[in-house]
Fold each of these.
Amino acid sequence: MDIQLMPIHWVYLVFIGFILALLIKRRDTTMICVVGIFALGLLATETLSGSVSGVFNSFIYATKELMGTIMIISIIVAMSRVLIRTGINETMVAPLTKFLRTPALAFWGIGVIMMVTSWFFWPSPAVALIGAVLLPVAVRVGLPALGAAMAMNLFGHGIALSGDYIIQGAPKLTADAAGLPVASVMEASVPLVIVMGLVTTITAFWFMRRDIKKGTWRSGLIDSRLEETDDLVATDQASKVFISERLKNVLAIVIPVLFALDVIAMFVLNLQGGDATALVGGTAVFILIAVTLLAHRNEGVERVTSYLIEGFVFGFKVFGPVIPIAAFFYLGDSALTDMFGKILPEGSHGIVNDLGVALADLVPLNGAVGAVTLTVVGAITGLDGSGFSGISLAGSIAQLFATAIGSGAAVLTALGQVAAIWVGGGTLIPWALIPAAAICGVSPFELARRNLKPVLIGLAVTTVVAMVLV
């Protein structure tokens, strides 16, 4: 079906170009997204008041769409805080340390533990939960601190966050922008996450072993621990809360069992998307309340609230930059009609879909071109060091290309998500590497340098796999 492009289509496309240009220059994109929303509102309503109101309403729309994701991350972080301060996290991880007997076992063991923990707790809290306990063990058996940081980083901020199969924050963002069900994006991402994870971690380990043998390994250690900007990692000893060893041991068993039961329930009850997230979130709330009451006793009621506040501060700190950007890209799909009424031509399925149809008429696209483009776009959106702030763009462009090609929407969306999070989620951008670097006492710039080749090789191989799958 031929769709006649209107000025609003071209304005949307121009602002996508502006956003990409700013991302390449590592500049913030919030302001340009706000201006883009205003411009689209002005074209849609032809009134100044309508376009100004549209900016605020688009923020409300995006916040409503993202609220479940913001909420689950905030609650998980709040629960993580009480586990760190009571020392339950140390007790939970301690039995695993006896398996880390060689440098190789330490690297892969820390990585797998970090990955599993990050699926349930998200990577930043997971670094604090396990890093302080496992790092001394790893160093004692001969794994350099920088190697431990690489393992935590690649498995946590790379593999776990790029799939995000339990909390489902990343696939929610990309799926919404691409107009797809969350489950389809998650399913399509499985082979890509596996390939990216295996290639990157094996390559990183091989480079590390080679350089250590050749004597060219740089430790990356710094004289004093980094002044941590994320207070999840730098938990002050003064804030530790005393509970008995017996109670610690009991809770260290009960908490993992509860989350394991959640995972079983997801499969048995076929819970996906928001339902699965809600189950994990509700479990985390009850764990937070129970542990806080047991640890703080008479002050427990008030402390539950303070932990929740800390979690919400972290959640909105992470998603504050995401909301204006997501608001702009939601307008590329159904949000435009919801907010401004029926202004697109008959037969239109949203700005992005219309552009995809037009693109298919002009340029003969194929799966290979689409896959390479989505990897590049995903990587560019990750240059701001967030990983999340630009994946809506990746989802929108995936929808555009899939419409032009005629297939592969879920695969392209998942590929853009994987590329964006591996680059910006905390494996290549130095300021995004601070949590893992700080807990290991290494330079984030040296950690980024060590990750660069393995991640680029992984992206290249994963892109080839996506070409086949599209």
Amino acid sequence: MKIGIVANGPTELVPDLSNYNKQIDIWIGVDRGTLCLVKQDIMIEHAIGDFDSTTYEQKIMINNHAKSIESYPIEKDKTDLELAIDKALEYNPKQIYLFGVTGGRMDHLLVNIQLLLPLLKQGVRGFVIDLYNELQLFYPGVHMVVKDDKYPNISFLPLTETVYGLTLKGFYYPLKNETVHLGSTLCISNKLLRNNGTFSFRSGILLLIKSRDSQQGPFM
């Protein structure tokens, strides 16, 4: 089971969701982000949020396109996105894709990236995807990275104080058994030499960021 969640980030950063529609089984819209799914004519299983950022007319559109509407008060202990993730987890998915969660307020961006951590702990592969980036968290082990022409640049950032034993194979800048500390720029902007490569580490939590070249125009 693969679930796509579209939140209320800037719409110009949301890619063409039809490119993901074939691989995603269930779509969940978050507040105004539901309108991205409506406009791209994608079936919506659930629309979740306080809908404080939608007009009366937009709420009618959402009601007409979503199978299920779950409204929450504005004042609550969880963000609309976290509530949507809770709903997604009821399906015991293998993967959850988060769209519309970047751009705008920095506090929302940082916490949205951190929401990948509870997914990782539950054995769910979580992705944050926008026009420019694809992000994923990893526990220690050996992991493969496949070349993606949309996101040719590859960076690794520690999300724990220290990541031990980081080894990169098949990359332009290889590493062997390196210790990388939080705040280090050692592993920024690498590239694969072939169609795939591997990275491995012994302890810590690592954020993989694949991004497009800055000189490229937005792709859909």
Amino acid sequence: MQRKFAGIGAIVMLVAVALGAFGAHILEPQIGEKAIGTYETGVHYHMIHGIAMILAAFAAGLGLDQKRLLWANRLFLTGIILFSGSLYLLAVTGWKWFGPITPLGGVSFIVGWLMFALALLKKEK
């Protein structure tokens, strides 16, 4: 399962780089400076958590707590979709109702990092 998440993490990073380039080279002149800042925040968190997914998958290969690492990866992916996705849509559409979705993604990131930390800190039997 973790190998699958390492692959998903790599695809998530591919998408993050593509979206970052799209934002910088095509989107910025269309949506303006303020909106591109929102968009860039989405890309930033997207990239960090794509890398986190790959790290969590590799940590699972070290024999650490598989269950918590699996949940960390699920939560990182959920956070990318909710947090970064809502920021992308907010920046591009200007629809403010995407704003309340963003904190749900932030909570997913926080709980994902908690699961990752607990997996790393769990005492071996």
